[in-house]
Description:
Blueprint: H1 2-23, E1 31-35, E2 38-42, E3 59-63, E4 71-72, E5 85-87, E6 95-96, E7 109-111, E8 134-136, E9 158-160, E10 181-183, E11 191-192, E12 205-207, E13 215-216, E14 229-231, E15 253-255, E16 263-264, E17 277-279, E18 287-288, E19 301-303, E20 325-327, E21 333-334, H2 340-349, E22 352-353, E23 357-359, E24 374-375, E25 381-382, H3 387-392, H4 399-416, H5 422-425, H6 432-443, H7 448-477, H8 479-489
Parallel strand pairs: 2-3, 3-5, 4-6, 5-7, 7-8, 8-9, 9-10, 10-12, 11-13, 12-14, 14-15, 15-17, 16-18, 17-19, 19-20, 20-22, 21-23
Antiparallel strand pairs: 1-2, 24-25
Helix pairs in contact: 4-7, 4-8, 6-7, 7-8
Domain LRRNT: 25-61
InterPro entries: Cys-rich_flank_reg_C, Leu-rich_rpt, Leu-rich_rpt_typical-subtyp, LRR_dom_sf, LRR_TM_domain-containing, LRRNT
Family: Belongs to the small leucine-rich proteoglycan (SLRP) family. SLRP class IV subfamily.
Amino acid sequence: MLALLLPALVLGRVGAGAPEACTRPCPAACSCGLGERGCWVRCDRAGLLRVPPEFPGQAASIDLDRNGLRFLGERAFGTLPSLRRLSLRHNNLSFITPGAFRGLARLAELRLAHNGDLRYLHARTFAALGRLRRLDLAACRLFSLPERLLAGLPALRELAAPGNLFGRVPGALRGLANLTHARLERGRIEAVAAGSLLGLGRLRALSLQANRVGTVHAGAFRPCGALEHLLLNDNRLAELPAGAFRGLGRLRALHLGGNALGRVARAWFTDLAELELLYLDRNRIAFVEEGAFQNLSGLLALHLNGNRLTALAWAAFQPGFFLGRLFLFRNPWRCDCRLEWLRAWMEGSGRVAEVPCASPGSVAGLDLSRVAFGRASDGLCVDPEELNLSASSAGPSPEPVATTVSRFSSLLSKLLAPRAPVEEAANTTMGLVNASLALPSRAVGGSGRSTQFLLGSSLLLSAAQHMLFVLQTSGACHPGVAQTGLASGG
């Protein structure tokens, strides 16, 4: 019985002493406590200019963010065998002694982001951190990473180094067999060379966006066979080699937006059978080769918006079967028969929207979904004509009123024309004004029969003028009435 109770008594004493071990000694400017992940120490925004000389021996997490630390000396944190997380973000660090992290053998996460004066790291800065899994070096304005800087970090999984001044992909990444995520965006990288990513067989996500990449060598990403997300957007790519993405059979998302690509080649995406998201937006693309997307049968979304496309052939997708969404807005589309297939697909699938027409003039400003394509007698498509404009305008057209007045004027001219001379009869097509002006000159010095004709013509002219006034007035207010009158009068 005593043998059973003894372990319980020992465990009880250890548990009772744990809170005390976490709070003693706690630095004066910090707060300490016990959480789900062990003992934590928070010294953020404490106005510290140097690292406190002592921390609780059981500390698992230390936060020193937003202070004024400028220098980390040898064993800056002493020996803390339980420390898993250390954050030093937003300080003024300019130099870290190679042995500064010695004594932190179990450290798994180190955050040094936003230390803009750091600029340089010694090759042995992280030599004692064999269990480090996450390293954050964002916005430290580092010009490079020494080749051997990360060689002693076999457990490293995630490297965040955006906002630095790298001119190329750091050679320190090569050989990191367990690295799964690498963030190198917002830098000055100009090219991705063939050997830049050697030994990264488990890399799943790589971000190179917002750099100056103008060249990608063929096979540059081949060592990254497990890659699922590749971000190359907002760079300076004007062309890609045929084998740029060769070997990336597991890639699910490819971002190429915001570059200077002028076309989409068929050879670019031949190996990307698992691709789900493809971003080609905000480029200068004016042409898509036949079969460019033919192997992308699993594509969920294709972004081609913000380019210079006037046409897109269905042959770009054949012989594949594309079921995803198409984003095509902000392109100068020419909505002729070459886009009839796209209009039919918009109606059938509902997976395309906002395809504004820039030409021809008869449909400029309309969305492709509202464009009507005619059919010739042989069944072939006929490009849209001016009918699209009248079909899209609201309300009935005022043209029937004008047509009714014109026909009535013509009829009246014919009734009056036989009594006019030949040379004057030629002017009767000018309307009622010319006919009425010709009548008095013919009546002067004429016979009684001419006088009777003049009286009859005057009455007829008065009645005609009154009827024209009524027609014009009713046509302006009620276009439908004029149209009905024309139909019955004809």
